[in-house]
User: Which sequence fits this backbone?
């Protein structure tokens, strides 16, 4: 049995900030939590402890192309022109490259406060579109990267059949993504086997989008997934909404709510462009809105109607998506700032007078991310022991009372390198980050560098 004891001067518990918190961890889970007690001999002592944040939406391989799409094209650039850059980038990726890139992305997630990742996994096949001899070859590489870094994994193998609404043929650039429903059933089963080595792993399904599956194929995917999480890209772009209307006379969110058994298993990724009626109905459905504010800003998607959705009781979480910049605080900050720009107000994502915006964002994303990824993320006995400690001597945290700690981290501390306020991180009870650096960072970064030099030279 693995065992450790941590003591925090203050820690964020479900009931609020608590003082003098002693936490016992056994076999990767919280086994005991005592409040208002002094540390004991042998305890590891820290000032500030918060639950690790779930990252509910990630395409790990895209970490390798961060910064490669910032050159103006001959006409107006958009998500759709960015997508062509992505297709060209992935043509050169081998399974070894994908594993190396994913390991760096997961390392950076842990260093900045994410302790579980939802890997929306659609890069399945070889460059010619032919399946590898092992149909779960790429899934095994994702699992290997999760094992190496220690991050919790919810693997979401994606069903991608078509290139547009109504069963249009896929583009050549999509050939590495494509499976029939029968192939997907085999991939899903093989993905379960591929992730058995990752402690606490969850396997869900990810029908890519209504562009990529027909209604019958979507129903089939839901049956394959059973009670597991269901993630789908939806209403990210105006062009996508217009194409869905032309196909079905319904907007994407509207169509899903009217035609699919949307419930607490579902996570609607982006859901950027919704009417007020769609926003309200999605909030009532129990589905989670999977927001990726940095990527949505990078791609020019638009702004999610966060204030209305949250005000109606909707659950949301955050993800790093294209991994142009990785950080739990960064995503939450961008979410709030996007609402400030939209409404030309401040402190928009909390409506309760006197409430901390940072704490509201953090607690909400913990709850929504946990539901979306099928794994709890609070400091509670029996939950996975995912803990992030913050540096009380960071310039932005010095002297802060408990109720301003998350505001100061999210809005003032920055992330990465010397600016990083994250001190140490435990994932499933294992200490994976010490003094702001992942314990295997040097080896992971070296392997990533070798992969990227090869890929970019190709």
Assistant:
């Amino acid at each position: 049995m693995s065992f450790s004891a941590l003591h925090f001067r203050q820690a964020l518990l479900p009931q609020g900030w608590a003082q003098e918190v002693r936490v016992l961890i056994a076999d990767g889970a919280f086994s005991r939590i005592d409040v208002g007690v002094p540390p004991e001999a042998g305890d590891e002592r820290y000032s500030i402890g918060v639950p690790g944040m779930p990252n509910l939406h990630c395409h790990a391989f895209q970490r390798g192309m961060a910064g490669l799409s910032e050159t103006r094209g001959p006409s107006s650039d958009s998500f759709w022109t960015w997508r062509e850059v992505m297709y060209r980038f992935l043509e050169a990726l081998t399974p070894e490259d994908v594993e190396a890139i994913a390991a760096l992305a997961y390392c950076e997630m842990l260093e900045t406060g994410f302790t579980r990742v939802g890997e929306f996994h659609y890069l399945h096949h070889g460059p010619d579109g032919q399946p590898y001899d092992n149909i779960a070859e790429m899934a095994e590489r994702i699992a290997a990267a999760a094992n190496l870094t220690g991050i919790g994994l919810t693997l979401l193998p994606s069903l991608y059949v078509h290139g547009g609404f109504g069963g249009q043929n896929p583009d050549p650039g999509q050939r590495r993504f494509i499976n029939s429903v029968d192939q997907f059933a085999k991939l899903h089963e093989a993905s379960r086997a591929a992730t058995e080595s990752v402690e606490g792993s969850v396997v869900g399904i990810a029908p890519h989008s209504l562009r990529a599956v027909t209604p019958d194929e979507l129903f089939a995917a839901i049956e394959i997934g059973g009670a597991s999480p269901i993630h789908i890209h939806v209403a990210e772009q105006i062009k996508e909404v217009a194409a869905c209307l032309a196909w079905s006379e319904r907007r994407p969110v509207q169509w899903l709510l009217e035609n699919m058994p949307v419930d607490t298993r579902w996570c609607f990724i982006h859901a950027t462009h919704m009417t007020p009626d769609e926003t309200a109905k999605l909030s009532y459905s129990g589905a989670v809105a999977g927001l990726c504010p940095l990527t949505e800003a990078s791609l020019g998607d638009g702004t999610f109607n966060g204030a209305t959705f949250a005000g109606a009781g909707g659950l949301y979480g955050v993800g790093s998506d294209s991994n142009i910049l990785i950080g739990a605080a960064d995503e939450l900050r961008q979410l709030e700032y996007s609402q400030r720009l939209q409404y030309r107000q401040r402190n928009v994502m909390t409506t309760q007078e006197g409430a901390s915006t940072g704490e509201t964002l953090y607690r909400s994303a913990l709850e929504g991310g946990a539901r979306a990824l099928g794994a709890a993320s609070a400091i509670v006995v029996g939950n996975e022991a995912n803990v992030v400690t913050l540096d009380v001597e960071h310039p932005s945290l010095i002297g802060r009372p408990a109720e301003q700690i998350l505001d100061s981290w999210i809005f003032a501390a920055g992330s990465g390198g010397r600016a990083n306020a994250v001190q140490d991180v435990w994932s499933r009870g294992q200490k994976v980050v010490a003094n702001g650096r992942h314990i295997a960072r040097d080896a992971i970064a070296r392997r990533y560098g070798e992969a990227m030099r090869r890929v970019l030279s190709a």
Q: What stands out?
A: The chain has two domains: 3-51+379-436, 53-373.
